[in-house]
Amino acid sequence: MRGALIVVSGPSGAGKSTLIRAALAAVPELGYSVSATTREPREGEVNGRDYIFLSREEFERWIEAGKFLEWAEYSGNLYGTPEAKVEEFLADGRSVILEIELQGARLVREKRPDAEMVFVRAPSLEETRKRLEGRKTETGDAVETRMATAELEVAARSEFDYEVVNRDREQATQEMISLMKRIVESARQGARR
Fold first, then answer.
1. Which residues contact 113 (CB under 8 A, 6 or more apart)?
2. Can you tell me the mean pLDDT for 170-184?
3. Is the pLDDT reported for residue 193 higher than 50?
4. What structural domains does the chain harbor?
């Protein structure tokens, strides 16, 4: 029995990480694939838990070695999904969540058309801006870059199988947990056929 490959994408500030953490806590059959990145860790982030932090040179060596299911450049940094860990989860019959940006989500969909695609967004672009500025982790230029990217990402939301609009954290959390349970159960049912 193989689990489901679940891709969660959406603009920065949409609350993807918060919703994913809640789903992982509520659905024991789910695993999380930690992405690799060349960006600097934010305060409180731990290497190997939040991201695998690599230098650009290390990341490029991983690309050359074919270690990524997908990788992309986003806001000047490289991000990628190590394929070995994803396959390990799926082979063990566990479903796995990937939190990746739009370009990477499209690459996964190309390689793995069976992937379940989930788009998470704030209720408006104005709310996205407010959340990004409220983080106080980026410069004004970085916020503008992320906002331009967010507009493109929101325009592509029809490419996804499911959408969670994060208006209210509690409601969005329950919606995400319910969705993950349905996807996991569907994978289990499909494996029984």
1. none
2. 97
3. no
4. 5-192 (3.40.50.300)
Exposure string over 149-161, b if 16+ CB within 10 A, otherwise e: bbeebbeebeebe
What percent of the chain is modeled with pLDDT above 90? Answer: 66
Q: How many other β-carbons are positioned within 10 Å of the β-carbon of residue 12?
A: 23
The phi, psi pair for 13, rounded to 5°, reads 85, 0
pTM of the complete model? 0.86
Annotated binding site: 10-17
Q: Are strands 77-82 and 68-74 parallel, antiparallel or unpaired?
A: antiparallel
Which residues belong to the annotated binding site for ATP? Answer: 10-17
Separation between Cα atoms, residue 146 and residue 88, nearest integer Å: 33
